[in-house]
Amino acid sequence: MPYDFDLFVIGGGSAGVRCARIAATHGARVGIAESRFWGGTCVNVGCVPKKLLVQAAEYGAFAEDARGFGWNSTRPAHDWARLIAAKDREIARLNGIYRQLLESAGVAVFEARAYFLDPNRLAVGEASVSAERIVIATGGHPVRPEIPGAALGIISDDAFFLPELPRRVAIVGSGYIAVEFAGIFAGLGAETHLVYRQPLPLRGFDTDLRTALAEALAEQGIALHPNLHPLRLEAHGSTRALHLAEGHVLSADVVFFATGRVANTARLGLAAAGIAPAASGAIPVDPARRTVQPHIYAIGDVTEGPHLTPVATAEGHALADLLFGPAPRAFNFSNVPTAVFSSPPIATVGLTEGEAAVRGPAEIYLACFTPMRHNLTGRSRRTLMKLVVEPPRGRVLGAHMLGEDAPEILQGLAVAMTAGATKADFDRTIGIHPTAAEEFVTLRSLTRTVGFSNAAE
């Protein structure tokens, strides 16, 4: 049976665009459909605009810090509307680039919703197309908690388009989005509250990082409310009253729910394709990203994870190479680095101390210090660096950092760890002085050894 396309991709985000573009460069006949915006969550309502807002918040602190270096500077008033307009212009530019990349590669572009009619046929807007292979790359979306009045709060998609900076904001959650926006709003001058169920923010990260981040957030004046969860949200005129467990109530102009995301599978017509999503809504796939239908694949945030833009992009590229390239590549996502653009930022790669301890003995090297600049600014900001090492070979299992430039520094360490670097390799590397980064190659004193009891068991 002749098909309209060799490959059709549903979703124009990081995973889908890369997969479609690379497949087309390999000579495949490729179509792609996107009903909302090119570039997906990351470009439009995720990592890119969020980092621009993080940078905006940092400039206020820089103005205050400059006084410690002799500048007669004062913190100016912030123009939220001007920032959002500048952000919108940059996002529109990136949207155009994503579409241009597809068209330049010869991909047939459809700005329409696509859903399955049968395992090889899709409705795309008013048209119907067939494809030999189909890739689902529809990503995910944020959700509100199931509490009374949740619709009175905003989610991350809304935060990028607020007409004005709220005077008081309560953020519910403690993951990437929650802690990042806490730093943004506080840095721009809003009274900021962070509410979360756990004793520390960023569940799943190394405990030392989590502890240090909680201290850093509090130092910025962010009010932390750990071990609490929301019960209901009420409106009193323009004010929102967030009722929490144990009788606590927070009043705010905006309540921001950063309580999770789910896969975009509800309107795909998966039943017509013979595919059933998991209980979470995500699409189950095998290691080659195949669904139960061997010619239908799923990549990116529509699967179980990890939900990181570079992972989605790598999946899209690897899948295109696997299906149409002369040199297929295996999927390998060990030692995936990640960053949290909190204030200060976090970056991490490899195992946490807790994860390493479960596997067997691990040596921990830890340093915490005040960065050079803040000895002059007087700002209470600390940097934490940590290595998790496997004895006796000395292979570095994990590297973690909280502090200025952490994401830029850890990217290089991720390369070293992917190549199998040992603690001896770190020790014999000459540092760049004076930098914070050099601390990673001058960590000589063992802080502690963990995991003996686990190893014995």
Summarize the structure in words.
The protein has about 450 residues and is α/β, with parallel strands linked by helices. It is about 30% helix and about 25% strand. It is built from 14 helices and 22 strands. The strands form five sheets. Strands 1, 2, 3, 4, 5, 6 and 16 form a seven-stranded mixed β-sheet that branches. It starts with a strand and ends with a helix.
Tags for this model:
Enolase-like, domain 1, seven-stranded mixed beta sheet, six-stranded antiparallel beta sheet, alpha/beta, FAD/NAD(P)-binding domain, 457 residues, 22 strands
Supply the CATH superfamily name of the largest domain. Answer: FAD/NAD(P)-binding domain
Indicate the structural class: alpha/beta
Q: C-alpha Rg, in Å? A: 24 Å
Please name the CATH architecture of the largest domain.
3-Layer(bba) Sandwich
Low-pLDDT residue intervals, each spanning 5 or more residues: none
Query: Might you state the CATH topology name of the largest domain?
Result: FAD/NAD(P)-binding domain
> Globular, elongated, flat, extended or rod-shaped: what is the shape?
globular
Number of strands: 22
Largest sheet: 7 strands, mixed
Q: What distance separates the N and C termini? A: 58 Å
Compose a concise summary of this entry.
The protein is an alpha/beta fold.
